[in-house]
Amino acid sequence: MEDTLISFDTALLAKEKGFNNINCKAVYENTKEYDFDEDTWTLYNKSIIEKKQSKNKILCPTQSLLQKWLREVHNIHIEIYSHNNDWYFILQSTHYPKSFEFKSQCEKDYQTYEEALEEALQESLKLINNE
């Protein structure tokens, strides 16, 4: 069992919303995912962070790391639940009363937990106002 990496589209959105300067074990480069051993990654990650992620190099966190960032930095909480063999999500936050105050539930069902979480991550990122 391994943590699931976010998709390229989610990584682009996360970058746009300020996800940077965080140590990740993978990176997207021109839509292709690369994993690194510990020594290579330390040097590579440092160069990406210092360059604030170049246009073709985007940090690729796991779904759980991005979910934690959303919770700790933006107070956006994601709840995933199952009903009748389908998966759903709820987003909650009251941290930004001027920007948004919401409790929303997705309207479609997903076949896996990871599918539902990926969609919830994207929807959460869309709620963040860039300042």
Question: Main attributes?
Answer:
single chain; 131 residues; alpha+beta; 3-stranded antiparallel sheet; 6 strands
Describe this structure in words.
- α3 packs parallel to α4.
- The strands form two sheets. The chain has a three-stranded antiparallel β-sheet, with helices on both faces. Strands 4-5-6 form a three-stranded antiparallel β-sheet.
- It is globular.
- A hairpin with a 2-residue loop joins β1 (26-29) and β2 (32-35).
- Residues 97-104 have low confidence and may be disordered.
- The chain has four helices and six strands.
- With 131 residues, the protein is α+β, with helices and mostly antiparallel strands.
Quick gist of this model?
This protein is of the alpha+beta class and 131 residues long.
Describe the secondary-structure layout:
Elements: H1 8-16, E1 26-29, E2 32-35, H2 38-50, E3 57-59, H3 63-74, E4 77-83, E5 86-96, E6 100-105, H4 113-127
Antiparallel strand pairs: 1-2, 1-3, 4-5, 5-6
Helix pairs in contact: 3-4
